[in-house]
Write a structure and sequence with these properties.
5-stranded mixed β-sheet, 3 domains, Helix Hairpins, alpha+beta, 5-stranded antiparallel β-sheet, Heat Shock Protein 90, single chain, Beta-Lactamase, rod-shaped
């Protein structure tokens, strides 16, 4: 939805939809609202404080008038003299506080004895509550303090001193006019300061957008800059950089995977093409054609095995979100797999043993775990010479909550320089490629094993006891399922 202010011609040049402008508007609105509330609170507070102070002052003045009468009244019991003293004191008060518009009144009961010229009519005719010695009241738009004065003659006189509210309101208006320029200054400076702060706050985001705009699937080397402040924007940059690292590794792995797959597929296809071209070049004997077809069939089988491995690897990589709802006994899986390869081992006089300390029951994909054990046993058979031995062991550690499966053979082993790459896709040691007594594989067996084991939250490792002395592959899987996210 377009920003509504964009419809105003003189404001079209402002990018109202940008984050920094919106932050500026929000910050300015918040500051100005807080300032308006503060100014109103100050005005209200000053007004109430002045009224309370005025009421205390008025009450103090009527008390002072009462004390003055006690100090200066004549010795004779003359009520007229007492009233003259009160009137003189009230006139002096009225004259000295003329600038504050004070008005004064002297009452005898309910009758007014004397009142200043500016005393309002509503105050003059206001009845007196004789039950109170002194009080402060508001009459309309005026505030008055009243006190009872007892004369020596037993006469009750009342003194009122008051002032209009407009005097206090004028003082409050003066304070308001004093604060108004400050408010206007804040109104003008707040958007500028807010825009400057928003600009500084959004600079890292601008860098993120600039770097993200340069990213390409074929060029993922750029990374977002960090400022070392460890704030939310720095954490965002670090998180995105970590994601970019994972994406770059994934893209590199996929590129390497495609290149390795093409390399592995090119060999059998080239061999089949060469054999068929030679067979069709000229007339040949039936035996020659049969030999050519057998060679092509062998390459086809190898391609089929390679394609099945690729599909299995893709299936393992895409099923990370599946739920492990199968109960699987690893000991039983190992025994069934050994029984399946028993005929091949017996044909080559290879002894296979199984050791177990009890059931190793886990939750996982039994079909894929069986594939792991099959690949490991198949590798061991291919690299173990006739008359050799393969030892399998299954151990369930309740203390570590792990199931451990080991497959050991006394075959040719793995060179030290190749140990770090044996689980890479399509990796095959050159010696294994060139030896004719070893059945050719696709180079994906151990890679598939690692993918399946890591999917189950476990780990797999290979240890070589030296060339000609065999290897030991160790698979560790948690007894409880641990779901892993793909890298």
């Amino acid at each position: 939805m377009p920003w509504p202010l964009n419809d105003l011609p003189f404001l079209r040049f402002i990018p109202w939809g940008s984050l920094r402008v919106r932050l500026t508007l929000l910050n300015s609105a918040a500051v100005l609202l807080a300032m308006l509330i503060l100014l109103l609170a100050m005005r209200f507070g000053v007004r109430e404080a002045l009224f309370r102070e005025t009421e205390k002052t008025l009450l103090g003045e009527v008390r002072e008038v009462a004390m003055s009468l006690d100090d200066f009244r004549p010795d004779s019991a003359d009520s007229i003299a007492s009233r003259d003293l009160l009137e003189a004191e009230l006139r002096r008060k009225a004259a000295s506080h003329r600038d504050r518009a004070w008005f004064l009144q002297l009452l005898d009961g309910t009758d007014t004895v004397w009142a200043s010229p500016n005393c309002p009519e509503e105050v003059i005719h206001m009845p007196i509550d004789e039950s109170l010695v002194e009080t402060v009241k508001r009459f309309g738009k005026h505030r008055c303090a009243r006190r009872l004065i007892d004369t020596r003659e037993g006469e009750k006189l009342y003194v009122r001193i008051g002032m209009p509210d407009k005097v206090i309101e004028q003082n409050v208006d003066k304070v308001t006019w004093f604060l108004l320029p400050i408010g206007i200054g804040f109104t003008l400076l707040t958007p500028l300061a807010g825009y400057w702060l928003a600009l500084r706050a959004t600079q890292p985001i601008a860098g993120i957008l600039k770097t993200a705009g340069r990213l390409k699937p074929t060029k993922l080397g750029d990374r977002l800059p960090t400022r070392g402040t460890d704030d939310e924007l720095d954490q965002l940059s670090i998180t995105i950089n970590r994601l970019l690292d994972q994406v770059a590794r994934h893209v590199e792995q996929q590129q390497q995977f495609v290149a390795d797959a093409a390399h592995e597929l090119r060999g059998p296809l080239a061999a089949m093409q060469n054999a068929l071209e030679v067979a069709t070049n000229k007339e040949r004997s039936l035996d020659s054609y049969q030999t050519t077809l057998e060679e092509a069939l062998g390459e086809t089988r190898h391609l089929t095995h390679l394609a099945n491995d690729l599909l299995l690897l893709a299936e393992v990589g895409s099923s990370l979100d599946s739920v492990f709802n199968q109960v699987c006994d690893l000991e039983q899986v190992v025994r069934q797999t050994v029984a399946m390869f028993g005929g091949n081992a017996e044909e080559r006089s290879i002894a296979m043993t199984i050791q177990s300390n009890g059931k190793a029951v886990i939750r996982g994909d039994e079909r894929q775990l069986r594939q792991v054990i099959s690949n490991l046993v198949d590798n061991a058979l291919r690299f173990t010479p006739e008359g050799g031995q393969i030892d399998l062991a299954v151990e369930a550690s309740q203390a570590n909550a792990e199931a451990v499966v080991t497959v050991s053979d006394n075959g040719r082993g793995v060179d030290e320089e190749h140990l770090e790459r044996v689980f890479d896709r399509f990796f095959q040691a050159e010696a294994a490629r060139t030896r004719g007594d070893i059945k050719r594989g696709g180079g994906l067996g151990l890679s598939i094993c690692r993918s399946i084991v890591e999917r189950h939250g476990g780990r797999i490792g290979l240890e070589s006891r030296g060339v000609g002395r065999g290897v030991t592959v160790t698979v560790v899987i948690p007894l409880r399922p641990v779901r892993r996210q793909s890298a």
